[in-house]
Amino acid sequence: MRLGLGPIPLREVGGDELISLARAAATASFDAVWVAEDRAAGVGGAIAAAALVAQVVPIRVGAIVDLGLYHPLYLAEDIAVADISTAGRLEVVFRPAAGAEVANEDLDVVALALSGAHMQWEGEELKIPARLDANQPAPSRLALNPQPFQPVVPIWVLDVVRAGFGVARGWNAGMTLAAARIPDLVLCPADVEADDLLAAAANKPAYFVVAATAAGEAEALGRKLAGPLRMPEFPDWINA
Predict the structure, then answer these.
(1) How far apart are CA 117 and CA 205, in angstroms?
(2) What pLDDT does residue 217 have?
């Protein structure tokens, strides 16, 4: 069972406060710290922010990225570069940008590019390489360069079941997670209880990301959740 902190909204938290939260997450025994962009509000850069956070904490870093507002090949390049800069500690959740849907074509292109394949794509909206007359001569296929550090970058899609990706979903009281090759990632409120998370996982792998917007809150959540989630019958007196 894995425990992440966040997602920290970049439209509200930045600079020194973001670094303080990330350090608190590492100190409080979280496995990862997550940030979230909001392109509808003019705030992007979640992948870059995650890469920055990774330079100051030793845990994994995650980015919630709005999908559908820029070219999926550029997105794959950003993921690859960030994964290299984090030494293979990057994780990503794709969600539909405000007013957009997660397009299957975008997901297919990102997955193909990150796989290392020499790709040629002729889709409904995208053509890769574009082979514009102004760019000739040009190859008929291309590959992402550089490639990510990890053989497979962990990627989930919010509320979408799609082969090759995990499913991210919001927390619902009483939910039970299904067994899956890629464990579901669940975005949880700060007031969630360890017993509820254990019941939702029901002895299956799971990944819970719990909200916090201040370092003190992160430390309290770590004390409340980290021990019980990782050690059966965790003794209450440790945190007394």
Answers:
(1) 30
(2) 93
Within 10 Å of residue 96's Cβ, how many Cβ atoms? 17
| Whole-number Cα distances in Å, 9 to 12, 34, 35, 41, 162 | 6, 9, 6, 11, 26
Per-residue pLDDT tens digits for 222-238? 989 988 887 766 666 66
DSSP string, 100-111: ----HHHHHHHH
Residue whose entry in the numeric block shows the structure tokens 């992402």: 144
Range of the domain at 77: 2-239
Please tell me the total count of domains within the chain. Answer: 1
Q: At what angle do helices 72-85 and 104-114 cross, to 10 degrees?
A: 40
Closest CA to 209 of 68, 45, 12, 50: 50
CATH of the domain at 83: 3.20.20.30
Decide the pairing of beta strands 127-128 and 121-122.
antiparallel
Positions of the chain with pLDDT under 50: none
The whole-model pTM stands at: 0.91
Crossing angle for the helix pair 194-201 and 215-230, to the nearest 10 degrees: 50
What's the sign of the alpha-carbon dihedral 80, 85, 88, 91?
Answer: negative
Q: Measured between alpha carbons, how far is residue 111 from residues 44, 82, 176 in Å?
A: 21, 16, 28
The predicted structure's pLDDT at residue 153: 96
β-sheet bridge partners, residue 5 = 33, 210
d(CA 134, CA 116): 27
pLDDT tens digits along 58-108: 999 999 999 888 889 999 999 999 999 999 999 999 998 876 666 788 899
